[in-house]
Design goal:
The chain has helices spanning about 1-30, 50-75, 80-90; strands at about 135-140, 145-150, 165-170, 175, 180, 180-185, 190, 215, 220-225, 250-255, 260-265, 270-275, 280-285, 295-300, 305-315, 335-340, 345-350, 370-385, 390-405, 420-430, 440-445, 470, 510, 520-525, 535-540. It is mostly beta strands. Among the domains are: about 150-390 and about 400-420, no CATH class; about 480-540, no CATH class. It has an eight-stranded antiparallel beta barrel with strand order 7-8-9-10-11-12-13-15. A hairpin with a 3-residue loop joins strand 8 (about 215) and strand 9 (about 220-225). Helix 1 (about 1-30) packs across helix 2. The longest helix has 27 residues, at about 1-30. It is extended, with a radius of gyration of 42 Å. The chain starts with a helix and ends with a strand. About 20% of the residues are buried.
Length: about 550
């Protein structure tokens, strides 16, 4: 308490001194417009307050302190709504100031927007809006593999199903359906061949160690969990529930979880069901419907039970009570059809948006949207026996046709009418190389009188307007020059008197010398090596 009084007295003394000094300065200050006093003019002396004055100062200081404390303890008064709105309006709206030098009719200066920058250009909207193909490029940071996707524009489907088709490029990819590195992103499940030829030792409803391993989409390994028995999986303790139709099916999950999909393999080994979080279901292989189709199955022609690959056959959403049925009749379905050649299956037709009045129709001509893939023979055909039987891939995509037709007011198809072309996407390849290098992707629109599908579901030749093609180029690496050797000559020359070299000769090696995708026979004989920078080998 004593320290507080001493501080208060000191504060009062300082205030009195400053007050007297201020009053003295006020008395000595010259009037406005006069000159300042000389620097050597002495300041007025300060007076020491008397004890009575100090007591009065203390009383005033205590009263001021109590007033401040009571003001802090009182609740803060809220301004009225009108005052708040007025304050907000006055703060948000710029205040107009009067400038005597500016005429009243002169326009106000524009606000400075130098700090505002646009990060994207807004394209025109509406029917005439500018659209690209929506291609996207990305790089996998962990592997350095570059990927590029070119979507094929198709109409949206009814319901939650969303069929999407894209050309996917990967720098590590091989010969795909659209050339080197290019393939279609269509779901499939295949047997793993990294560790050898599949055994095809499938036992219905039983998992055993000798069973083949499976991959989804070409690289996503599947892990077997259990065989479901009466809605129960002994290896699952998390309370996970299973559909009633899954009794006796093998249950799989992804080795590296990402999409949280569930995979079920039928006891007969001909069908896979894939369930997504959204409730959509994929059927791969033989679809579970009253109108079965086996075109999505790739199997050994001599042993039809040896199924190597299950391609997607049907896709549907939960509409129509499809989750608990062994043979569902979905309201919104997408059907995929394939053609076979030399042991390989090629996606040819996709149908979706079926009539609402005939959800389980087998009449593919009644569907609202049809996507057709056209192929041509490729010069860089490949042959493989990694499946255990011969598979020759000699087809490549050359065109994608999209056709549509409307329904009547009730969603049915009371007046049968053919589908008409919506757009066509053309793929061209570089003719300068033996390998198939995708050179361009170009979209073609419909003509004033759109072409109609024939009875076979195909379109006649059209000449609609085309958008500028997207052009692709590739970096080709030639043979490097080696000191002491002549430059490599890629021209084939016959060697007169060349011996008939069997493959059993230890000096014979098969390798792709000219990088044309075909093996070349290389013969190297160390005993015949000559100096002068000319090696003793030849390729035939």
């Amino acid at each position: 308490m004593r320290s507080w009084s001493i501080a208060l007295v000191a504060l009062a003394v300082a205030a009195m001194a400053s007050g007297h000094a201020a009053s003295a300065a006020g008395r000595d200050a010259p009037p406005a417009g006069n000159a300042a006093p000389p620097r050597n003019q002495a300041a007025a002396p300060s007076r020491v307050p008397s004890p009575a004055e100090l007591e009065a100062i203390k009383a005033k200081a205590k009263a001021a302190a109590k007033a401040r404390e009571s003001q802090k303890a009182a609740p803060e008064a809220k301004p009225s709504k009108a005052k708040a709105n007025a304050a907000t309006t006055s703060a948000a709206a710029p205040k107009a100031t009067v400038d005597a030098t500016t005429p009243a009719a002169a326009p106000a200066a524009a606000p400075d927007r130098a700090a505002v920058s646009s990060h994207a250009i807004a394209l025109p909207q509406g029917q005439g809006k500018v659209e690209g193909l929506g291609e996207s490029f990305s790089v996998q940071a962990s592997t350095g593999i570059a990927t590029f996707a070119v979507p094929i524009p198709v109409p949206p489907a009814r319901g939650a199903v969303d069929p999407a088709f894209s050309l996917h490029y990967k720098t590590s990819g091989g010969a795909g359906l659209a050339g080197i590195g290019w393939d279609m992103g269509v779901p499939f499940i295949a047997r793993e061949t990294n560790k050898g030829v599949p055994r095809y030792d499938d036992r219905p409803g039983i998992f055993h160690p000798e069973q083949d391993r499976f991959v989804f989409g070409g690289g996503q390994a599947l892990v077997p969990i259990c065989v479901i028995v009466v809605d129960n999986c002994a290896e699952v303790t998390t309370g996970e529930r299973f559909p009633s139709w899954a009794d006796g099916w093998q249950y799989f999950r992804s080795a590296v979880e990402g999409g949280y999909q569930r995979f079920f393999w039928a006891p007969n080994g001909r069908t896979w069901r894939v369930q997504e979080q959204s409730g959509n279901t994929w059927e791969l292989g033989e679809p579970l419907e009253d109108l079965p189709d086996t075109s999505a199955i790739e199997a050994d022609p001599e042993h039809p039970t040896h199924i190597y690959k299950w391609n997607v056959a049907r896709q549907y959403d939960p509409e129509g009570g499809t989750q608990g049925q062994a043979k569902p009749t979905p309201r919104n379905a997408v059907r995929y059809r394939y053609f076979h050649k030399d042991g390989a299956a090629y996606l040819q037709d996709v149908y979706y948006t079926n009539p609402a009045t005939a959800v389980d129709t087998g009449d593919l001509a009644s569907y609202g949207v049809h996507v057709h893939f056209a192929y041509e023979v490729r010069p860089d055909a490949t042959t493989s026996f990694r499946t255990g039987y011969r598979v020759r891939m000699d087809q490549r995509i050359t065109r994608v046709d999209v056709t549509t037709k409307p329904f009547d007011a009730g969603g049915g198809n009371a007046v049968p009418m053919p589908r008409v072309v919506l757009r066509r996407v053309h793929l061209t390849y570089d003719p300068a190389y033996h390998q198939s290098y995708l050179l361009g992707v170009q979209a073609e629109g419909r003509e004033p009188v759109p072409a109609t599908e024939g009875a076979d579901g195909l379109l006649p030749p059209t000449s609609g307007e085309r958008l500028p093609a997207m052009r692709l180029t590739y970096t080709h690496v030639g043979p490097a020059a080696i000191d002491g050797f002549e430059p490599f000559d890629t021209q084939e020359r016959p060697i007169v008197g060349a011996p008939a070299l069997p493959f059993s000769d230890p000096n014979v090696t098969l390798m792709d010398v000219d990088q044309d995708g075909l093996p070349d026979m290389v013969h190297a004989d160390p005993s015949r090596y000559r100096a002068l920078g000319i090696p003793s080998f030849g390729w035939f």
